[in-house]
Design a protein that fits this description.
435 residues, 9 helices
Length: 435
C-alpha cells in the first residue's frame, strides 16, 4: 500500500489554525474529529483500486502551512462584468471578492468561508458539519476538513436564477507551501447558477520544490435546482493537488460537472455524487491531457439513492511522454434506487510507449429494477489508417496526428456547459501537443 506523510498534520497545527481564525468551539471539534479520521484512514478505501494507487511523486512532507488567515480584501466598488461574482485568492492573500449589486439585493451570498462562519452561522454551520458532506472514509477529504486554511461560501436563496457565472480562482504553487481550501455551494429550491473554478500558477511560484494544494467543492442542491460547475486545474509543474468534490442532489435537481486537468506534477481527484431526491440527475465530464512525468488519479463515485435517478458520466484523457493516468469509476445503485438509469464511460489514448493509461469502471447494483446500468472503457493509440487518410488529403503527418488527438477529446470538451471554459481547455490541450 502506498504511503503519504504530511509533517504539519497534527493537533497543534489544527488548534493554531482555529485560534488564528477565532473559530467557535464546534468548528474546532469538527476539525479535530476530521484529523482523527485522516490519521486512521488508508490512502485507498476501496479494495478494488488498491493495486492502482500510488503516491510516489508526492514529496510534500516538509511543506509549510499558511497558519494566519488572509487579511480582508480591499473594498471594490466597481460592478462585475460578464460574471455575477468574483473571488480570487493568490497563495494566502484574497485579491478579489465582489458580487453584483443585483445579486446582493436578491439575497445571494459570496464570502470567504472564514467570515461566513461568523456572519452567516445559521447557513454555514449545517453545511460545514453536514452528515452528507465530505466522504468520511476518504483520507484526503478528512485532511482538508481538518486543516483548511481558506475557503469560499456561496449561498443562493430559493427561486433565484443567477444570470452570469460566479468565478472562483486559486493561484498556487509557491515552493514548499501548503494551501488547503473548502468551497461550499448551497443552492436553494428552484434556483439556477453556474460556477467557474480555476487553479493556476501563482506569480510567486518558482518550481524548484513541490507545493501542496488540497481543495474541496461541496455542493448542496435543493429540490428543482440546477448547478453547472466547470473547473480547470492548470497549476504549475511543481504542484501536488488533491481535489475532492461532493454533491448531494435533491428531488428533480440537476448537477452538471465539467472538469479539466492540464497542469501540475500530480493530481489526485475524487468526485462523489449522491442522487438522493426522486428524479435527480447528474451529468459529469472529465478530461485530461498529460505530458512529461505528470500523474493523474481520478476517481468518481455516484450513488443512486432515490427512485428514477439518472447519471451520465464520461471521462477521456490523452497522455504522452512518460505521463500516467488512472481513471477509476464506480456507480452504486442502492436498494432504494428503483428505476435508476446510469452510464459510466472511461476512454484513454496513449501517445508513447512510456505513457500508461488505466481505465477501471465498476458497477455495484443492489436493486435490479433499473432502467439501465452500463459501463464502457477502452485505451487506444492513434489509428495509423486515420493518419494515412488525412495525409492523402494533403495534411502533413504531425498535423494529422494532432487533429486525431483533438478530435478524440472534443466529444467531452463540447459537453462543457460554459463555452469560455471549453475554449480555454482547447487552447491548453493544443499547447501541450508534443507530436
Amino acid at each position: 500500500m502506498a504511503e503519504f506523510h504530511l509533517g504539519f498534520a497534527n493537533e497543534q497545527t489544527v488548534r493554531e489554525l482555529s485560534a488564528a481564525r477565532q473559530e467557535p468551539q464546534w468548528l474546532l471539534s469538527d476539525r479535530l474529529a476530521a484529523l482523527s479520521g485522516f490519521d486512521s484512514l488508508a490512502i485507498e478505501e476501496m479494495q478494488l483500486f488498491t493495486k492502482y494507487t500510488t503516491m510516489g511523486t508526492a514529496r510534500v512532507e516538509d511543506t509549510a502551512p499558511y497558519i494566519q488567515p488572509s487579511p480582508p480584501p480591499q473594498p471594490d466598488p466597481s460592478e462585475t462584468t460578464g460574471v455575477s461574482g468574483q473571488f480570487h485568492q493568490e497563495e494566502d492573500t484574497v485579491k478579489t471578492l465582489r458580487l453584483s449589486a443585483d445579486m446582493r439585493s436578491r439575497g445571494v451570498v459570496l464570502d470567504t468561508l472564514q467570515d461566513a462562519v461568523t456572519s452567516y452561522p445559521e447557513k454555514s454551520r449545517p453545511l460545514l458539519s453536514d452528515r452528507h458532506g465530505l466522504p468520511g472514509r476518504d483520507k484526503f477529504a478528512q485532511m482538508t476538513r481538518a486543516m483548511w486554511m481558506a475557503g469560499v461560501f456561496i449561498s443562493i436563496p430559493d427561486n433565484v436564477t443567477v444570470p452570469h457565472p460566479i468565478h472562483v480562482r486559486w493561484s498556487i504553487g509557491r515552493d514548499k507551501t501548503a494551501l488547503l481550501t473548502r468551497t461550499i455551494v448551497s443552492v436553494g429550491s428552484n434556483s439556477n447558477v453556474s460556477v467557474i473554478e480555476e487553479m493556476d500558477r501563482s506569480a510567486t511560484a518558482e518550481g524548484n520544490s513541490q507545493a501542496l494544494f488540497s481543495g474541496t467543492e461541496e455542493v448542496h442542491l435543493g429540490d428543482g435546482s440546477s448547478l453547472k460547475y466547470a473547473s480547470v486545474a492548470n497549476a504549475g509543474g511543481n504542484a501536488i493537488s488533491f481535489l475532492n468534490r461532493h454533491a448531494s442532489v435533491g428531488r428533480n435537481a440537476r448537477m452538471n460537472w465539467a472538469l479539466g486537468y492540464v497542469g501540475g506534477e500530480m493530481t489526485k481527484s475524487r468526485v462523489d455524487n449522491l442522487l438522493e431526491g426522486r428524479s435527480s440527475a447528474v451529468k459529469e465530464v472529465q478530461v485530461l491531457y498529460g505530458g512529461k512525468s505528470q500523474f493523474f488519479d481520478l476517481f468518481s463515485h455516484t450513488r443512486h439513492i432515490g427512485e428514477d435517478t439518472v447519471s451520465d458520466l464520461l471521462s477521456k484523457g490523452v497522455i504522452q511522454e512518460q505521463s500516467k493516468a488512472y481513471t477509476k469509476g464506480l456507480i452504486t445503485v442502492e436498494k432504494t434506487g428503483r428505476g435508476s438509469d446510469s452510464f459510466l464511460g472511461e476512454f484513454g489514448m496513449a501517445l508513447s510507449r512510456d505513457a500508461r493509461f488505466l481505465a477501471i469502471p465498476s458497477l455495484e447494483i443492489e436493486n435490479h429494477a433499473v432502467k439501465r446500468a452500463k459501463h464502457s472503457s477502452s485505451v487506444q493509440q492513434i489509428d495509423q489508417n486515420q493518419v494515412f487518410y488525412l495525409m492523402t488529403r494533403g495534411i502533413e503527418e504531425r498535423e494529422a496526428r494532432k487533429l486525431i488527438v483533438m478530435g478524440f477529446l472534443e466529444p467531452v470538451v463540447e459537453r462543457i456547459p460554459l463555452e469560455d471554459v471549453a475554449n480555454r481547455l482547447r487552447s491548453m490541450f493544443a499547447s501541450k501537443w508534443a507530436g
